[in-house]
Task: structure prediction
Amino acid sequence: MNSKGNEPARPLDIIRRRLHKRYNAEKRFKLYGITAIFLSLAFLFLLFVSIIGNGYSAFQQTHLQLEFYFDPDLIDTANPAASNFPGIVKQTLRQKFPQAKKRREKKQLNSLVSTGAAFQLQDMVEKNPGLVGRTEKIWVPADDDVDMLFKGHISRDVPESDRRLSDFQLQVIETLEKERAVRKRFNATFFTAGDSREPELAGILGAMSGSLLTLALTLALSFPIGGAAAVYLEEFAPRNRWVDLIEVNINNLAAVPSIVFGLLGLAVFINFFNLPRSTPVVGGLVLTIMTLPVIIIASRASLQSVPPSIREAALGVGASKMQMVFHHVLPLALPGMLTGTIIGMARALGETAPLLMIGMVAFIVDIPTGFTDPATALPVQIFLWADSPERAFVERTSAAIIVLLAFLIIMNSLAVILRNRFERRW
Amino acid sequence: MENILQQTRYASLPEAGLQKQDWTHKSVVMEKFEKYDADQRGTVGEIHVADPRMTCRNVDVFYGDAHAIKDVSIDIGRNEVIAMIGPSGCGKSTFIRCLNRMNDTIDICQVTGEILLDDMNIYGKDVDVVPLRAQVGMVFQKPNPFPKSIYDNVVYGPKIHGLVQNRIEEDEIVETSLQRAGLWDEVKDRLDQPGTGLSGGQQQRLCIARTIAVSPEVILMDEPCSALDPIATAKIEELIDELRAQYTIVIVTHSMQQAARVSQRTAYFHLGDLIEVGETKKIFTNPRHTLTEDYITGRFG
Result:
C-alpha cells in the first residue's frame, strides 16, 4: 500500500516494522543459550579428557618375569609367614645379574622389583607347599619407577642425576626387555588391594568398601528418617509458627558447609558417644545428618506434587488421613522421593570434608569388612593419593577419580531411570 | 455484534415467559447490588421440608477473616435432588463441603452453627469424620479416579471400611456399584485396567460408582459435569435421576438448565448468603427475590 506521510500508520505496518527486531532478539537469545551449553560441554569434555588421559594407564602395571628358586633353606613350610621370601627375590636377582658387585648396585637391583613380589611368592607357597625346592618362572610386579619408565614418565635420555633410575638399572631393564621378560599387564591389584605406600601395590578396594559401608548406613538411616519427617511435615503437621521454624531450619541445614557436620560428628559421635574414630559407623552418621535436609526437601517437593484431587478422592470415600497418605499419596510420591534420595546419596559419596574431621583420612591398608573397622572413603583416597609424592600416584589418583565418577554416573542414571519409569505426569 | 451476543444469551435462558429487558447497561446491575444490603439478606422461600435427612441451622463459614457462608439455614429432604446454584464465589461449593466436613482439611476454615444428619450433629465433639464420610459421599468437580485399576477404584472404599470380607463379596460390590453407575457394560471386560485410562464421562461415573460402593445415605456432587461434554453430561444427569430412588443428592451446578432438569428443589446462593430456596419449578418460573430473578434470567453470573 502506498501510504502517504500524513496518513496515520496502519497497525499491521507498525507490527511488521518491529518484526525483525523481535526475531533478532530471539536469535540472540538462542545464541547465548547455545554458547552456554557449548561452554559447559567443553569444560566437561576437558575434565574427562584430562582425567581419563591421566588415569587410564593406571589400569595397567608393568610386570617382570623372573625364574624364582623356592630355596628350602629360606622357607619355613610350617610357618610360611616367618620365611625369608624377600631373600628369595634378592637371591634370584643376584644370580641373574651377577654384574651387580657393589653394595649400591645390589640395592638398586633389588629395588627394581616391587616388595609385593615377596608376598606373591608367600601366597603361592601357602596355597601350594609342593613348590618348595622347585624353580618357577613367575611374573611379578615391577617397582613403580620401572612402571613409570615403561609408561614414558621417566626419560632414558636425560643425565643420570636427573633420573630416578640409574644407568645400571637401565642396563638391567634392557637385558630383561631383550628376554621379553617385561610386560604391561592388567592391574588387578588396583581393584583387589587396599591402600599402600608402594604405588604398584596400592588399590582402591579398601576405599570402595569404606564408601560402600558408609553409604549403606547413610541410606538405611536417612531415607526412613527423611521420608518420615517429610511425610509428617507435609501431611500431618499443623500449620503454625513452630512448623515454620522447623522448615526454615531444615532449609538452612541444607546450606550448611559439610565440614561443619564433620566437626559436629567429631564432637558428638566420637568425643561424647565414644564411637570408634575413622569408622564407617561415624562416617555414615555424619553423612546422614548432612543428607537429611536434602532428602527431606526433595521428598516434600515430591509429596506436594501429588495432586490434591487424589487426597480429596481418598478422604471423600472415608479414608483416614493415614490411609490416604499410605494408600494413595506415598505410592505416587515414592519415585520422586527415591530420586531425591539417590541424588543425596551421590552427594554423600563425593563428600570429603566431614570425613577428614572424623579421621577417615587415615592411612588404612586393611580392607574394612564391618561398620566399626577403620576405613577410608573414595574421595578421601583421592585426596590422600593426590598428596603423595610418587609419580605413579598421579595416575592412580586419576584412576580413582574415574572409579568415583563411574559410581556417580551410575547413581544419577538410576535416578533418571526411576523418575522416567515411575513418575506420573498430571 | 453485540446484538448477536445478546440474542444467544436470551436463547439459552431456561424457561419461557421472561421479559426481554435491556440488561446490557452494567449500571442497572450495579444499582441492584448496591440496594442489596443487610436487611434484605434473609432467605426467602421454604427452607423446611417434612422429612429432612439433613438439617442445617445458622451455618457460618470463615476462611480466616473472610466470611464465606453467612447464617445459612436449609433442610435437605429424603430422596430428593437439591441443586445449589449461584454465581462464582457465592459459597455453594463451600457449603456442600461442610456437609461431609471436607472443609476440615483446610486449616484456616472455621464452621459454626448446626448441621444435623438424621438428628446427629456432624460437627459434634464425638463425631468421627471417617464414618461420616462413608455416610455422606462426595463426587468432585474434576473426575479424580485413583491411579489404580477400575476394580480397585470401586473396591477401595468398602475394603477400608471392612464392608467386604472376601473376593466373592468384592466382586459383587464392584459389579453392583458399576451397574448402578451405568458403567458396568462398558468396563466389565477391562476391570484390571487403570481407571485413569477411561474417558472423562466414564471416569466421573467411575467416581460415582466408587462413592455408592460404600452405601452412603447422601451423595454430594460438586459440579460433577463441568469438565464433561454434553453427551457425558446427559448420562450423568440420567444417572442422578435413577440414584434419587435410594439416595439424597445435593448437587452444585453452574448450569441452570441442569438444575432445572435434575433437581426437585433449588437453592440460590449469593455472596455467601442463601437468597432463596424452593421447588425448582417455582424458582425458575416465579422467583420471589429480585436477585434470583436477575441471575436466572441471565442478567449477571
Residues 11-55 of chain A form the longest helix (45 residues). Residues 58-193 of chain A form one domain.
